[in-house]
Amino acid sequence: MVEVCLPGTGGMLPLENRWTASCWAEFQGAAVLIDCGEGTQLALKKADCKLSRLELLLITHFHADHVAGLPGLLLTLGNYGKKTPLTIAGPAGLGQVVASLMTIAPHLPYPVILEELGEGDRAFDLLGIRFASMHLRHGIPCLGYRMTFKRKPIFNPDKAKRLGVPLRQYKTLHAGQPVVLENGSQILPCMVLDGERRPISLCYCTDTQPFEEISSFAHGADLFVCEGMHGDGGMGEKMREKGHMVFTDSAGLARRAEAKRLWLTHFSPAMKEPEQYLAAARSVFEHTEVGYDGIRTTLGP
User: What range does the domain containing 27 cover?
Assistant: First the structure.
């Protein structure tokens, strides 16, 4: 199962009741964070995200509301006792930006590994997760991310019991490794498994104008998290000029992507009550939800 949370849902700057937009995904004890605006470490704590589990930080782009919180987060991780490496991935220029920000957080008790994704769309594997990126349209290099979580096959305890497998060896078989019983017989994983399960996918896109390739990138996602800078459809042209979307733009992309669910995020500070525009978005895509700080769900029963 994958735990997903939006610790913050705001665009441009933090507000008293809304942190800057970020996304937290936790899978098999390891966590991934997308973006790190000002005060993100506080938003994570308030949303009950376990900082000790953070292994990877993905940066969408280098505007302040998506990266200015990096020094504070890095120092907080150190104060929480982190010793294992933290990988940071992002667009071209990541090394220079991170090096500049780390001048005020120079001494960390853990290594920082940088993965610059460059100019082309990239895919890589880490933490048992398949990551894909695509370039969005925002005026500066900006990446959308898709995570595909491969789940273990279905384990059949009745089969294991009939074969005489001790309970303590179930986990080994479920992980795909054979076991040898006390009588010398070997039990293979295929003898106790009931087939593969469909992978879980999470897609995250902000900040960007709407364009059709996003639908292809998000196709079939169990959860599509997408920006909705404003809910008023009449603001559409103005938002697109600034490299953003209104709610109905995002809902249209989710519908064409055949996503299972849509969470809207990255709201304008001028939009005090984004929920009032939910009906318009749902008229385009029924399974739309307006995100809020701390919203959480579990993907994959």
Answer: 2-151+198-299
Q: Are residues 12 and 92 in the same domain?
A: yes
The total of structural domains in the chain comes to 2
Q: Is 63 among the annotated ligand-binding positions?
A: yes
Whether the per-residue pLDDT at 301 is higher than 80: the answer is no
- The annotation status of 65 as a binding-site residue, yes or no, is yes
pLDDT at 239 over 80: yes
Angle at 101 (CA atoms; ends 95, 103), nearest 5 degrees: 105
The answer on pLDDT for 120 being more than 70 is no
Q: Helix %, strand %, coil % for the chain, to 5?
A: 30, 30, 45
Is 107 annotated as contributing to ligand binding? Answer: no
One of 35, 65, 222, 293 is an active-site residue; which one? 65
Separation CA 108–CA 70 (nearest Å): 13
The H or E element containing residue 280 is helix 278-282
Pair (280, 183) in one structural domain: no
Query: Is 138 flagged in the annotation as binding?
Result: yes
d(CA 34, CA 56): 8
Residues 121 and 141 in one domain: yes
- The answer on 167 and 22 residing in a single domain is no
207 annotated as belonging to a binding site for a ligand: yes
Task: Inform me whether the pLDDT recorded for 150 exceeds 90.
Answer: no
Residue 83: Cβ-neighbour burial (10 angstroms; 0-12, 13-18, 19+): exposed
Helix (H) or strand (E) holding 100, with range, is helix 94-101
Q: Are residues 167 and 139 in the same domain?
A: no
Q: How far is CA 29 from CA 3, 58, 86, 174, 222, in A?
A: 10, 18, 15, 17, 20
Instruction: Note the pLDDT tens digit of each residue in 160-176.
Output: 888 888 888 888 877 77
Return the residue matching tokens 């249209």.
252
pLDDT at 278: 97
Active site residue 293: no
Task: Give the pLDDT band of residue 14 (cuts 50, 70, 90).
Answer: very high
